[in-house]
Amino acid sequence: MRLARQLSIFTSIALAVLGFVPLHAQELQARRPYRIGVLNEAWAANHPAVEGLKSGLKELGLEEGRDITFEVRFTEGNSQALPGKAAELVEKKVDLIFTNGDAAIHAAYNASEKIPIVFTQVGDSVIPRLPRIGHNIVEKITGISSLNVKLAPKRLEIMKTLVPTIRRVLAVYPASDVSALAAVQDAQKAALALKLEIVSHPVFATEDVRRVFKSVGSGDGFLVPDNDTFDIPSAILEMSLASHVPAVFPTTLWVSHGGLVSYGPDYYSQGVQAARLVVKILQGVRPQDLPVEGAEKIDLAISLKTAALLRVSVPRKVLLRADRIYRPRSHAAVCFGSMSFFSSY
Question: Which of 136, 173, 280, 298 is the most exposed place for a label (fewest CB within 10 A)?
């Protein structure tokens, strides 16, 4: 009996030296998959940032179903529904909440002071304000900044380059979106040198967006916000195409659906980038030890089909700078650098 016990101990030590730890492996197999909650104002579960997160986690060795599961909650542009959805995620006892947008951060934090949060689609102006949302919020939150405020002046410059006759830019955004307001304020500072007037239109409901559209005239354009509240980007896209009013969007997604031009980080890429932070937190790293990262790649996308519709002549220098060009004849987006090909609209 004693000999058998000694042999068992010897075998365990030998396996450990060789790198095999059967007991640990059994524990890993027995552990339930990590539960990741998703909270946003998207219109479908497969928001590009969420799909990017899933892809990034898979690249890092976490398989959906085996290592991780997802509880996705989206509100179809209704920010008022976010607190209830956040409460559902807490009830599901998720290990981490992945959010898209400013309002989702607040809802997730208010639902639980313990569950860590990783965000995307949050403007750089919001980052310094995070500690004031709650007394210990910096201890549970990190993520990817979309740099929305810093990019606003550049978006105006691109708009003016494409449409030299533009004189007034309407900035429609949810009244509660602090990041969008800061972006508009920075755009207003840059507008003087471009001989543009920025008209700020904070809105409280979908009906307000429709009222703004009635004021659009010749020489106007739109600066589109980076969130899904009240479905503003989609409404502006429809207005732009129907009334031939130029608009500059925050990300390529909207150009792939017919928008004229966009300048900003891709939603999908932000999700892939956020996956690194998610994995580190699941492995035990504290969120406060993971600094907020800026989006790694900023893309310029142009639709030549829409440019032709709006009678916009795209300068050669813009075409050479573009990361993605959507051409009507090929029905494909020509992408440069490391970007892949995407179907045209």
Answer: 136
Domain extents for the chain? Answer: 11-146+267-294, 148-265+298-343
- CA quadruple 277, 282, 284, 286: dihedral, nearest 10: 40
CA–chain centroid gap for 300, Å, is 16
Q: Could you say which DSSP state residue 33 is in?
A: P
Range picked from 3-17, 73-87, 119-133 for highest mean pLDDT: 73-87
* Average pLDDT rounded to a whole number, residues 121-136: 58
- CATH topology for the 11-146+267-294 domain: Rossmann fold (3.40.50)
**Cα angle vertex 164, ends 162, 167, to 5°?**
120
Strand segments (E) across 56-204: 68-74, 96-100, 117-122, 141-145, 168-174, 197-203
Q: Give the position of tokens 């810093």.
A: 150
Global pTM value: 0.80
| Residue 254 to residue 123: CA distance in whole angstroms | 18
pLDDT tens, position by position, 49-87: 999 999 999 999 999 999 999 999 999 999 999 999 999
Q: Do domains 11-146+267-294 and 148-265+298-343 have the same CATH topology?
A: yes
148-265+298-343 is a CATH 3.40.50.300 domain: no
Q: Which tokens go with 317?
A: 């220098």
Q: ∠ at Cα 138 (174, 38), nearest 5°?
A: 55
Structure tokens at 304: 């030549």
Counting other chains too, the contacts that 20-25 makes at CB distance below 8 Å and 24 or more residues apart are none
Contacts of residue 106, defined as CB under 8 A and 6 or more positions apart, other chains included, come to 82, 133
Max CA distance (Å), the chain: 94
Query: Do strands 96-100 and 68-74 pair parallel, antiparallel, or not at all (unpaired)?
Result: unpaired
Q: Determine the residue type at 235.
A: A
* Separation between Cα atoms, residue 342 and residue 344, nearest integer Å: 6
